[in-house]
Amino acid sequence: MFLEFERQVTEALDNALKSLGYETDDLGLEPSQHADIASKVAFRLAAQAKCNPKELADKIVAAIELPEGSLIGDIKTVGPYINIDAGRNYVDNTVKTILEEKENFGGNFCEGKILLEHTSANPNGPLHVGHIRNSIIGDTLVRILKKAGYEVETQYYVNDMGRQIAIVSWALSLFEFDTSKKPDHAIADVYIKANVILNEEPDKVAEIDKRMQLVESGDEETIKSFAEAVEFAVTGIKQTLLRMNVSHDNFPHESGFIRSGAVSRIVEEIKATGRTSDDNGALVVDLADYGFEKTLVIQRTDGTSLYTTRDLAYHEWKGERADRMIDVLGADHKLISGQLKATLNAIGKKEPEIVIFEFVSLPEGSMSTRRGKFISADDLLDQIEERAYAEVDKRRPEMDDEFKKEVASMVGIGAVRYDIVKVSPEKSTVFNWEEALDFEKQGAPFIQYSHARACNILKKAEEEGKWNPAEEIDPSLLTEDTEVDLIKKMASFDSIINICARDLKPHTIAIYARELADAFNQFYRFVPVVSAEEDDIRASRLALVNCAKIVLANALDTLGIGAPESM
User: Measuring CA to CA, which residue among 376, 493, 448 is closest to residue 131?
Assistant: First the structure.
């Protein structure tokens, strides 16, 4: 609803400026503490108008004409600023639109196809805590972009040819695979054992190099051993991702770009630019004019390709299948992703948009799969759900075990997702168990509890015969400050989705969801709802509770977090 209000503000200002003989591409619209939206266009045009900004602002406001039914209310100048408030139509239409559109409220204003790649962890063991920020940021972005109206295909790019996979393949020929374990954990066991041998007997590294050469040259037996190893790990990784409400549409394998000839073709395309040279037998790309002192290696001395080479072919393929490509990558990929973009630009191919995130950690410290020092995502989720169960059991001891487990799962997964995504991607963060599960800290449990509270209010009112969801209501009766504040906060949902989709910063929707829950609780704290004496006012306030329930559920869904009806 806010986007429509903003559009009407833009149109009103443009028309006023044209009537005065001025035009501009930038109206200087910005958020304001003193109005729903403010414009500093008078600053921008004062020189052209040959008058001071305050005088020009007054002229512009005087020239504004609003059509009947406009969402715009009060317009006034404060010095050179033009402050614009939404009118009663905005408030009333918001309530009506939420009740009509329900789960569709706040979206479907963008179009185009996006391929978004996230997670793509090496399949040499389970996801650990260091990986899941990638998964959660990526999945939340997918949900935001879909809500905005884009067609989004989510991809997990499977590294099935690298050194780590060669080691896993070799390890499976040496050690017994524990089929009683979750497959990705069993893969980690043999991978760790293999690395111990490689550290103790360095001459064994030649066996790994040989496997990498065989798989790239098309040796069927080696290809099969790599594929089996990868399938074991990916099967387990998928299970973990689904547990976090994360799913992918496709799992393209990098070996496919070798088999198709795409890697060879892109190497020749890069050679044709004249940027390549021989560096002690390796083929490297000079990207100095793009600001990179370090050359990019695209072929080893033994003629095999690197992950980067195959990644270039993968991006060329993606670029032909979508309007936009988005990659979610850790901070350790900052250099290589920059070189990848520069190389694609040099050969005239579409470049990806890169979302770089800093890492999440636990107080326990850093993690390494190779050394066997990691806390798996599965372990984290088990522990957080145990803690969530204890919290639910403490609050609702009278409920059966099935209810407690269901709510604990929603609360636990929600706590992890929210605590990780609430921080802007470029900032590092430490996952804090206690804060994530604290119902009073305004994290996921606080937002979920607000949704459950709305459900409980409506259920109680319906049981008492005080609420009929099909009944026509009059939103103009909602005039209390906390009512209007809540309605305006819900109306801004589409604007928040738009900002998140534009900036690719999912933490903004996390902050919004918390503020929305707070606005709902403030409304319910200060305004009688079920106990309201007048029937029409009670009906309108219950409709507002229903609106809050709908938009809270929409916000939680966009965050990939469950919306329990009872806690």
Answer: 376
Q: Give the residue among 472, 480, 486 at the shortest CA–CA distance from 518.
A: 486
- Backbone phi, psi, residue 149, to 5°: 120, -5
Residue 368, C-beta contacts closer than 8 angstroms, at least 6 positions apart: 374
Residue 78, beta-bridge partner list:
81
Dihedral of the alpha carbons of 320, 326, 330, 333, in degrees to the nearest 10: 40
What lies within 8 Å, CB to CB, of 26 at 6+ separation is 41, 44
Query: Is residue 345 predicted with pLDDT exceeding 50?
Result: yes
pLDDT(366) > 70: no
Fold of 1-86: Gyrase A; domain 2 (3.30.1360)
H runs (alpha helix) in 64-178: 88-101, 129-148, 163-172
Please, which pLDDT band fits residue 48 given cuts at 50, 70 and 90?
Answer: confident
Overall average pLDDT of the 447-457 stretch: 97
Q: Which fold has domain 381-559?
A: Isoleucyl-tRNA Synthetase; Domain 1 (1.10.730)
Give pLDDT, residue 367: 46
Please count the residues of the chain.
567
Between the CA of residue 6 and those of 9, 36, 71, 247, 515, what are the distances in Å? 5, 10, 9, 35, 21
Q: How far apart are CA 219 and CA 318, in angstroms?
A: 27
Specify the domain boundaries for CATH 3.30.1360.70 within the chain: 1-86
pLDDT at 558 over 70: yes
In the chain, CATH 1.10.730.10 covers: 381-559
Mean pLDDT of 69-96: 96
Q: Are 2 and 487 in contact (CB under 8 A)?
A: no
- Give the separation between CA 296 and CA 343, rounded to whole angstroms: 9
Q: What is the pLDDT of residue 372?
A: 47
DSSP string, 515-560: HHHHHHHHHHHHS-STT-SSHHHHHHHHHHHHHHHHHHHHHHHHTT
Element (H, E) at 278: strand 276-279
Q: What average pLDDT does this structure show over 325-335?
A: 95
Alpha-carbon span 280 to 537, nearest angstrom: 81
